[in-house]
């Protein structure tokens, strides 16, 4: 298919980032994602589990939730201490290609919500490149960056661990969740995002561009764009 037609059909043409920023919250479907990883080194890390859930108008659509344990031969190192997945769990997991097929099928017309987008998207980009998967352009809101924006207004030096998902939930008065389960963390990040948007004074009629000053909005291409 011609690239321009593909872009037009997918809504990812040259002006798509502007359309994304000018969309109102009430017209935006958010897709919160979380990855559990073997390490925090994006170039070496393997995905051990992947969870996501969608929401709109300050609600969570539980029927959209998905959770996959991912099969990998990579060394788990100390990661089982964090996410609780041991080699037996991983051996029975799904192939990463199958998980990403399900993930990319959900992407059209969604804005991702991620706590620490730099890490998760860097890992996904590396996987897309390694597997030579078709490139995907994604737009996102980073709840970690929103937290840092607020914290920097109160502290010259941001306190250690104050922007972790657990600390952010506590500060927002939201219930604690058993962290490091990919689906539960994705749900928690979506709830946190709603609370952060409300704290910033945004309403359902507000545009995503109203977040631009926080530097929490972004776009990234996963994989290599082929001519």
Automatic annotation (TrEMBL):
Q: Which key words are in the record? A: Exonuclease, Hydrolase, Nuclease
- Lineage, top-rank taxon, reads Bacteria
User: Is Nuclease a UniProt keyword of this protein?
Assistant: yes
Q: Which GO terms describe its molecular function?
A: 3'-5' exonuclease activity; nucleic acid binding
Q: List the InterPro entries hit by this protein, alphabetically.
A: Ribonucl_H, RNaseH-like_sf, RNaseH_sf
Q: What is this protein called?
A: DNA polymerase
* Native species: Alteromonas naphthalenivorans
A Pfam family assignment: RNase_T
Question: A GO term (biological process) for this protein?
Answer: DNA metabolic process
Give a GO cellular-component term: cytosol
Report the residue ranges that make up the Exonuclease domain in this protein.
29-202
């Amino acid at each position: 298919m011609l690239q321009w037609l593909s872009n037009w059909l997918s809504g990812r043409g040259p002006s798509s980032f502007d359309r994304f920023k000018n969309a109102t919250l009430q017209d935006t479907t958010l897709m919160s994602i979380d990855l559990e990883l073997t390490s925090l080194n994006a170039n070496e890390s393997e995905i051990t589990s992947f969870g996501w859930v969608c929401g709109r108008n300050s609600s969570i659509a539980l029927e959209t939730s998905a959770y996959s344990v991912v099969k990998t031969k990579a060394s788990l190192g100390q990661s089982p201490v964090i996410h609780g997945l041991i080699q037996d769990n991983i051996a029975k997991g799904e192939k990463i290609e199958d998980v990403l097929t399900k993930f990319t099928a959900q992407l059209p017309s969604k804005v991702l919500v991620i706590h620490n987008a730099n890490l998760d998207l860097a890992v996904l980009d590396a996987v897309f490149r390694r597997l030579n998967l078709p490139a995907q352009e994604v737009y996102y809101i980073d709840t970690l960056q929103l937290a840092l924006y607020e914290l920097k207004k109160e502290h010259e030096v941001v306190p250690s661990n104050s922007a972790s998902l657990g600390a952010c939930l506590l500060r927002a008065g939201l219930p604690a969740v058993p962290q490091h389960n990919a689906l539960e963390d994705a749900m928690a990040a979506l709830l946190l995002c709603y609370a952060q948007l409300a704290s910033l004074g945004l309403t359902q009629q507000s545009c995503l561009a109203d977040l631009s000053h926080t530097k929490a909005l972004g776009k990234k291409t996963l994989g290599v764009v082929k001519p």
